[in-house]
Amino acid sequence: MAKRQVSARDVAELAGVSRTAVSRAFTPGASVAKDTRARIEAAAKQLGYQVNHLARGLITANTGLVALIAAEVNTPYRTALLAALTERLQAAGKVGLLINTDRSDDSVAQALRKAIAYRTDAAIVLSGMPDSSLTETCLRNGMQLVLINRDEARPGTLMIRLDDANAGRQAFAALSAAGCRRLALVNSRAGTPSLEGRARGFRDAAAAAGVAILDTASGATSYQTGLDLGTHLLTRPDRPDGIFCTTDLIACGVMDAARTRLRLDVPGDVSVIGFDDIPQAGWEAYALTTFRQPVEEIARAAVASLTPEPVDEDTTPRRITLPVGMIWRGSVRR
Q1: Does the pLDDT value for residue 60 go beyond 50?
Q2: What's the pTM value of the predicted model, to 2 decimals?
């Protein structure tokens, strides 16, 4: 037979107080006499009592659970963002519930339905885009929604975006200023709003300058994609001498293709710029010039927006656009 869980009633009996007094002792801000609190805490420690926050939350309609809906959780950038979000949530007295999805909207929809079933107070969506009808269902159930780097806002949600297009324009300007004349854009086929925004900014800057670029995209947002596309581009007769990669993982693959497979010098033969500023970008083996994702700022804005009060489903979507800073290292000629 399973051992019975220690209850608040058990603590009350041992401490010689009421069940209500035990509840107040473990409720932040509640008034309890000092000696009464001491007896309750001593009894709780002796019995090994732990407050059942989930049960309390179901009663008060505030569970403290926040669903984190994300794909590619093993990539360096996503890992850093999830770490920052969970740290902020814990500091705010909340608990992050990670739901690992693929990139599809259908997978995200299933994840949101699970979040509703678990009575989460909020969901932070890092991948995919929920259908508007499902968003309305979340809001009707009192769930707050935060969309990070998504393409379209929904009523009652907070959208946190980066100025990706401006980063693409800055990348073009930096490569041009470095004397690069044969420029290339390397992207995956993931098609996320962030990746497409960076690529669009680079293309627009090139078009405005009257510069033709080699525009390539293939596969997943991965090191292997960079290695494959880098090998393809750098073995062309008109190989590029300046490459903007939409993520650092892709850029690392391009750099290894150049140096290891083709014995080219970076930045002597080809300059490379990435995006994300993952830890590997700062390794001496890469010294990658890149754009830093403001991970802490994203996490701070996301968690600060979460309040116990339910959100009115007719509330106008809120938008926060964060700048990204360029980090100069040794992969671009200067």
Answers
A1: no
A2: 0.77
